[in-house]
Amino acid sequence: MSPRFQPDDTLYKRRNTLKVEYVPDDIVGRDNEIEEYEAALQPIINGEYPDNIFIYGKTGVGKTAVTNFLLNELQASAEHFEVDLSVITLNCDGLSTSYQAAISLVNNLREPENLIAETGHPQSKVYRLLWDELNKLSGTVLVVLDEIDHIKDDTFLYQITRADNNGYIDNIQLGLIGISNDSTFREQLDAKVQSSLCETEISFPPYGTEELQKVLEQRADIAFHPGALDGDVIPLCAALGRQDGGDARRAITLLRKAGDLARTENAEAVTTTHVERAQEKLEAQQSMDIMRDLTEHEKLTLYALITLAAENETPARSRVIYQRYKQFCELQGRDPRTARRMRSFLSDFEILNLTISQMEHRGQDGGTYREHELNRDIATVVDALQTIIGEFGAHQSIVEYLPDSGEQFASM
Q1: Residue 332 and residue 348: Cα distance in Å, rounded?
Q2: Closest by alpha carbon to 55, among 63, 45, 46?
Q3: Could you tell me the strand order of the sheet in which 368-374 lies?
Q4: 244: how many CB neighbours lie within 10 A of its CB?
Q5: 31-40: string of b/e by CB count within 10 Å (b at 16+)?
Q6: Long-range contacts of 233-240 (CB under 8 A, 24+ apart)
Q7: Is the bond preceding residue 315 a cis peptide, omega within 30 degrees?
Q8: Of all helices (H) and strands (E), which one includes residue 320?
Q9: Is the dihedral of CA 34, 40, 43, 44 positive or negative?
Q10: Backbone angles phi, psi at 230, to 5 degrees
């Protein structure tokens, strides 16, 4: 009996190159940003004190990819020219305080057997340990803080950007690279921190359609066999990626998902139909993630709307949705939010593309009001809201959309 899983390389040569983590040998579509970045890093090879660099732009615009690419090039150049250089990278996702960031950097600099506990130390001791670890190094030290905006207070950034001026380090030339998805982050910083951190600022704007096409063509040449893609596939992926805010990660993921669909169907080539279906799947998954991350009262507002949709009562006026939402809250002893607050939830849903709303004008006597309806099918929203439905009970209108006909859900 032959194995169930068989190797299949009919379309792909190197599928892994369509993963977000892959860093290509060359970066396309970011020439201006790379030129600015190179100029900011050049003092290191000259043996000069590095500038601090602040990189900002939305998700998927190449900030981290360009940083990794240029730092690899910088380290290779430093080795060639015998420049003493250390690069320390810290992802700040999950590090909401300066205390956590300082401890993480200390542990990043230490051997695994000498790590310090994440709690229980006086702050002054943590920084003393940090200066001790940094002073064990020599030459130029670059500290890269990815997703720097997760750190919600200034203490860590103040300490590290002014460590030299304050006499805490003496053996090294310390430089900082901060990378943020939030362009307003620097405006929230203390003036002294802002001036130190943002000596050189580089903005990464969203990719345009032509730039995305160059990125996708580069990846496709590596990932797919010749002839594996129909001619319109990359232009369509680029156009859809541009519509999604110029996010290269999203466009690359779309191309990979389309390739996977084509491979599953044993298709001879990836077509625009595969791309369109992959886009639908990605949008559905994105919607699911968004809905699952809503607050309780946001979920209850959406729950109220889907019950009205299931009863064919949409588009529905805000006040009608509010009455249903208020009913759900009262049945479970919850205090409902105000009607105004619930309307803000509905406005957010429209921005997130979960709903569609329109203003209705009924003449001088009828007045003006807004009506809302779902922009996703009822079954998808019910699936995303199963936790809240399980807690508050299944409204009779949506029972047919529940798994196993809603047998495990209490009725409402």
Answers
A1: 25
A2: 63
A3: 316-317, 368-374, 355-361
A4: 19
A5: eebbebbeeb
A6: 233/258, 233/270, 233/271, 233/272, 233/274, 233/275, 236/272, 236/275, 236/276, 237/212, 237/275, 238/209, 238/210, 238/212, 238/213, 239/209, 240/275, 240/279
A7: yes
A8: helix 318-331
A9: negative
A10: -65, 155
Q: Tens digits of per-residue pLDDT, 40-84?
A: 999 999 999 999 999 999 888 999 999 999 999 999 999 999 999
The tokens 């940090």 sit on which residue?
130
Candidates 11, 49, 46; CA nearest to 266 is: 11
Residue that is written with structure tokens 């593309």 in the block:
353
Closest CA to 169 of 205, 132, 221: 132
> CA 361, CA 236: separation in Å to the nearest integer?
38
Q: What is the distance between the alpha carbons of residues 168 and 322, in angstroms, rounded to a whole number? A: 58
- In the chain the domains, ranked by start, together with CATH numbers, are 30-203 (3.40.50.300), 207-289 (1.10.8.60), 294-406 (1.10.10.10)
Instruction: For tokens 């190179």, name the residue.
Output: 38
Amino acid at 160: I
pTM recorded for the entire structure: 0.73
Q: How confident is the model at residue 346 (pLDDT cuts 50, 70, 90)?
A: very high
**Per-residue pLDDT tens digits for 99-129:** 999 999 999 999 999 999 988 899 999 999 9
Identify the CA nearest to 126 among candidates 89, 155, 154.
Answer: 155
CA angle, corner 93, sides to 87 and 95, nearest 5?
90
Distance set, CA 259 to CA 94, 210, 250, 253, 265 (Å):
33, 21, 14, 10, 10
Across the strands, what pairs with 203? 56
Cα separation, 50 vs 277, in Å, equals 48
- Residue 211 CB neighbour total at 10 angstroms: 22
Token output for 248:
């290269």
Q: Which residues pair with 177 in a beta bridge?
A: 53, 144
List helix spans (H) across 111-267.
123-135, 155-161, 191-197, 209-223, 233-243, 248-264
Rounded CA separation 16/256 (Å):
9
Task: Provide the 10 A C-beta neighbour count for residue 298.
Answer: 20
Report the Cα 169 to chain-centroid distance in Å. Answer: 35
Residue 187 has pLDDT above 60, yes or no: yes
Q: Binning pLDDT at 50, 70 and 90, where does residue 286 land?
A: confident
- Write down the pLDDT at residue 39: 96
Paired residues of 91 in beta bridges: 146
